Amino acid sequence: MTYLLVALAGLVLGVTAERIAGPPAPPALDGYPADRDGSRGAATRRRRRSGRRRGLRWVVIGVVTVVLLAGVGGYLWARSVFNRIERVDVSAELTSGSGTNYLLVGADNSRSPDSQREGVEGVRSDTIMVLRIADGRATMLSLNRDLWVTNPATGSKGRLNATYNQGPANLVRAVTQNFAIPIERYIEIDFVSFAGLVDAFGGIVIDFPNPAFDLASGLHVEQAGPVQLNGEQALAFVRSRHYTEVINGQNVPEGGLPDVNRTGRQQAFLKAIMSKAGDKRNPFVLIHAASKMASGLRIDDQMTMFQAARFAWDMGRLDPARVLLPVVPRTTSGGAAVLDVGPGAEDVLAQFR
User: How many angstroms separate the Cα of 246 from the Cα of each of 79, 214, 216, 270?
Assistant: First the structure.
């Protein structure tokens, strides 16, 4: 492939230079006729014009060469980064529908043993989202990990995130069978690695209605409004399960369902980091960020580099609308706290079918 690109660059270079510079001028020789006064002024001027044309031709060739080599080099670099992304075999479960549905799985524990939380082993699919891009719009739906579903691998009931224990393909199948949502692309995100991506971008901005903290995750935000978080703070924000706001000097624990609220924070994190990526124009920053991103991703085995680039482009320019799935908490006969889809869920799910 490299040789093909170089050959193509050479061909384009030659044609472009010939088009711009034009055919070579005839050489300026002493045989040119003299002016009426017997001087050689006209011949001298022709020699000067010929020299200028030759100089222009070499400038054009140099500029075109640099541009083409930069393009070829950029492509080869992008290909090397893309090839570092781990693939997962889920192709048998991928289906197409109107628009493109991405299943985004957020892992709250790193795949690297050196980066895992103390006392927590293995990758956990703590966040499961469906991102739909259709007709120039992006919509994001969270499927809470505690949703009570049928596990396709076992046929028994259990939490949605437990279907990941049999592999990503089983998780895709569970989403498709339980919610009738076609999944065309699969992307797994390691939040620990993405914390490094936050630092590569110089931080992300999250809007806090009130000062907030979580002693368990290490989150500590002293002011309300837009706050810039570094990678460590962003990870504490994503992991927060005991989110507490400071309102009028009083510590007010977050109401509602903790895991549903945490999913909303993870959505905000993804939106912020993708928006930051779309705003960046410095190629050196993007190169550094892309290298960081590659180590924190797993994608389906059918995704091409063009499709991955298109996803990144869409996330940079689109602002995904967040859609909430109505859920109802209950306790199973075995004492497990789970969630069932609630009234109005079908209308929400229909937007992704």
Answer: 47, 11, 16, 25
CATH number of 90-350: 3.40.630.190
Q: Which letter does DSSP use for residue 310 in this model?
A: H
Name beta bridge partners: 219.
214
Question: Of all residues in the chain, what percent are helix, strand and coil, respectively (each to 5)?
Answer: 45, 25, 30
- E strands along 17-136, which residues? 86-88, 100-107, 125-134
- Return the DSSP state at 24: P
User: What pTM does this model have?
Assistant: 0.70
Interior CA angle at 70 toward 69 and 74, to 5°?
115
Residue 111 and residue 214: Cα distance in Å, rounded?
A: 24
Break the chain into its structural domains and give their ranges.
Answer: 2-83, 90-350
Blockwise average pLDDT, block size 10, the chain, 353 residues: 41 44 48 51 62 70 74 71 84 86 77 48 68 88 90 92 91 94 90 76 88 92 91 88 89 80 79 70 60 76 84 72 87 87 91 89
Cβ–Cβ under 8 Å, residues 102 and 312: no
The Cα–Cα gap between 226 and 350 comes to: 34
Q: Which two tokens stand for residue 75?
A: 């492509």
Q: How far apart are CA 352 and CA 147, in angstroms?
A: 18
The number of CA neighbours under 13 Å toward the Cβ of 274 is 21
| DSSP string for 209-268 | SS-EEETTTTEEE-SSEEEEE-HHHHHHHHH-SS-EEEETTEEEE--S-HHHHHHHHHHH
